[in-house]
Amino acid sequence: MFHLQEKIDQNDVYIIAEMSANHGGSLDNALRIVKEAAKAGADCVKIQTYTADSLTIDCDNAYFRIKGGLWDGYKLYDLYREAGTPYEWQGKIKEACESCGIDFLSTPFDRDGVDFLEQLGVESYKIASFELVDIPLIEYAASKGKLMIMSTGMGSAPEIQDAVNACRRVGNEQIVLLKCCSEYPAPWEDMCLGDIPAMRQRFQVPVGLSDHSAGSLGAVVGVTLGACVVEKHVRLDSVESADSKFSMTMDEFARMVRDVRNAKVIAQGSKGEGNSLTEGEKTSMVFRRSVFAVRDIEAGEMFTKENLRVIRPGYGVKPKYLKELLGKRSSRAIGRGEPVSDEVLREVRGS
Minimal CA–CA distance to 111: which of 168, 47, 54? Predict the structure, then answer.
């Protein structure tokens, strides 16, 4: 069973560790990433199912050369050939996920990739931001009846709606959108995580975050704004790859998982107008201020600013009643350091 819907139903956060190219060309590294991500608290490890030929053509003209950014100067075909996860590894990676008790997820980039993943028995599909406009691919993947997770980086509202409609057109209502900034790494000012609640309202589906920013802050903010999924690239300390420069080490990822889980606890729930006390607050009530006798007071003696004060602890009547007490006479003797009780206040009012 793919556990994302279960997490959503429980108002929890589903955390995806994105492997991408960070296996560095080694199956052993890929399997180690699975084990370490599971140990760090991931719910899922995601890979990508493509070949260089499924993404582009082997062409060396200016259209197919990357200009600027992490991959400046790369030919697209060469980048994808270097970064891809061989198809013959993917069943073994899925088995490793199952052995570790976490979900396996992959991003297909063409119909053949979808067919291959169907043979593996996947339970969900991830659509990358760059494929958000590939409506034929989305329709084909959605037609398999599996949960569709779609990143929306670069997507306009109409383009996101087109992708959602493509799923619904083939009878698939199992849709989760991921807010995303398709920059690597993504700067804070371009994240625009305030869109998360608006996306949830506009498209009427759960919304998470595919986070390419540095550190845990983006993920924490996303969760406080209602993100039900956090996807983050992870890497091994010793492995360099096309994606390693904007990926988290496993120690960093483990800290992010803790931060995200704690942020969810902090953000959820509301006391409402009643402002009901937590169990911990109930034990702190004693340290509030209240009205105490600071001198011995005889029965019939007048309450004054000299013999009454508002001090800690909170065993007496609330400070707001001090003004009502002043100038009235005490119905009983009250020793220095004793609280003015509710009963004394009632007696004063009855006199």
Answer: 54
